[in-house]
User: Fold this.
Amino acid sequence: MREDAVCLFGAGLDLLDDPERVSLKQAYVEATAKGHLPEDLPLDPYDALSPHLANRLNGRLVLSGKLDLAGWLTPRPGREWAEFVKPEYYRASLDQNLCQTVTEACQEFITENILPAMPGLLAVDHSLAGAAIRTIAEKYGAEAITYIVLDSHFDGIPNRLRYPAGKAGFPLPDTYHCGSFLYYLIEEGSLIAENLILLGVSDHPGSPPHPDALARVYLDYAKQGVTFFTKSQVRDEWFAERFQARLDAIRTPFVYVSLDADVGACTCLPAVRFMDRVGLEKEEILSAAEMISGQIQSGQFRLAGFDISEIDVHLLGLDKDDTTIEVCLDFIERLIGGSNVYQAS
Assistant:
């Protein structure tokens, strides 16, 4: 594989056990069995986005296929998987740390099929970004990479701290998953806290005079060096100046960029798995991509990889004005639009 290639691949793991989420899959399986749906519906975000990206990027993109998963673990299972599409099976898989197992399989996929080219991951569960992060850290060293994550939530918090006293309706377990994977990556040393930048966070508690358990987690990470730009801060008039200053301060030779689509939930990215927060607007998201790209083009650092996660294909196009695909395509195109994207060293 050419070292300057951008290799796009997919991983459709979708393990949420919330009955409402599972019911979407059950309805899809039933409608498919009755012949009520078109046969060309995208099965996952890779199917939805990759054809458009291949057309836009004019041969600069290599389509590297998808991680092989049992159908019931994906957003749109075939009808042969109907008996497994039940909340209890997804809960058991979460309890058994299946997100971690699939992340490890995804690491093998990157190593065997993509490196030394640049990985571009289209995932459902955000935890699979950990596969690219670990692989790049193993190759270049964790100290060589800054991670910029656009997300409405900080996915570095175990659920016992995010939802104390069982305040979530269907809480995820204290395992490696979409809400906690950054915690595990920092703990194991694949990601250095001071090299982590979070953008668009909506669940940040601010600086309360008497912090609760969740606030203390945020404060502790800030003390370790994690940079948080909350949603309200992104909308302040001084944000561009301060974000630019943070980019200017990056001294690592590589950056990795992760877009959790719920950073635009209920606004410009409506087809997402989590809609508990109102996210950023389109231009706020794309402006961040442009600013990062500007530093890449100036030669300050190189882009070592990127991912987009948490798109829900069941919700794509329900509204004729749905801009989910458009914003994701624009984000990637602005991020890697220049020629100075990647070079192995």
